[in-house]
Design brief:
Number of helices: 5
Number of strands: 7
Helix content: 25-40%
Shape: globular
Largest sheet: 7 strands, mixed
Strand order of the largest sheet: 1-2-3-4-5-7-6
CATH topology: Aminopeptidase
Strand content: 25-35%
Bound molecules: coenzyme A
Order of helices and strands: EHHHEEEHEHEE
Number of domains: 1
CATH class: Alpha Beta
Length: 161
């Protein structure tokens, strides 16, 4: 997917990010972008996914993830709130974006050893998407999520490679 790009979110992207929606039944896994943006702190680096310059997705790189969860490795980044707009789902964008993440992270966060995420056990599309993108299932589960058990996935980044 040549025209798919990852970049940091800019102030002027806010309306387009607020317009991104997931399906109603997906809300327990990710929430609405309005609520996500309200919870963003300095440790949360907001990013957009663009397809031919149009914003089609969003995610957060949490640079303090390793301080939030006991399952994390030292200095590990976290991937949060990864979503593709409902109208664009099922076209391979998520998997291609997950694949594009590794070279992007090597470049932007090359001093970090790895990135981790949790994905709800009832969310096969997200699980397939991350595995297809190069994440590895640690075999462990995180049980602290509000919407039920979550698999813990991990991918190496610069400093461990
Ligand atoms: C998860 C999400 C980002 C995937 O993006 P996408 O662009 O729709 O995904 P893709 O089209 O690249 O498909 C990825 C994989 O999921 C599979 N898939 C898609 N929808 C599926 C479904 N309803 N059930 C099972 N598998 C599904 C695809 O077949 C593909 O698997 P494959 O590589 O084995 O063929 C998107 O569905 C989304 O935004 N969901 C809501 C937010 C969310 O749950 N985020 C994850 C939080 S951890």
């Amino acid at each position: 997917m040549k025209n798919l790009q990852i970049r940091k979110m800019r102030d002027e992207d806010r309306p387009a990010v607020l317009a991104l929606q997931v399906h109603e039944e997906q809300l327990p896994y990710v929430g609405r972008t309005r609520e996500i943006l309200q919870m963003v702190g300095p440790q949360h680096h907001c990013h957009v996914l663009t397809l031919s310059e149009e914003i089609v997705g969003f995610f957060i790189i949490d640079v303090a993830y390793h301080q939030s969860y006991s399952f994390t490795l030292q200095d590990e980044l976290g991937l949060r709130a990864f979503l593709i707009d409902a109208g664009r789902q099922g076209q391979g964008i998520g998997k291609n974006a997950a694949r594009a993440l590794q070279p992007y992270l090597e470049e932007a966060y090359g001093d970090r050893p790895s990135i981790a995420l949790t994905v709800n056990c009832r969310n096969p599309a997200a699980y397939r998407c991350y595995i297809g993108g190069g994440f590895i299932d640690t075999g462990e589960q995180y049980l602290g999520g509000k919407a039920g058990p979550q698999y813990i996935l991990r991918m190496p980044v610069g400093a461990s490679r």
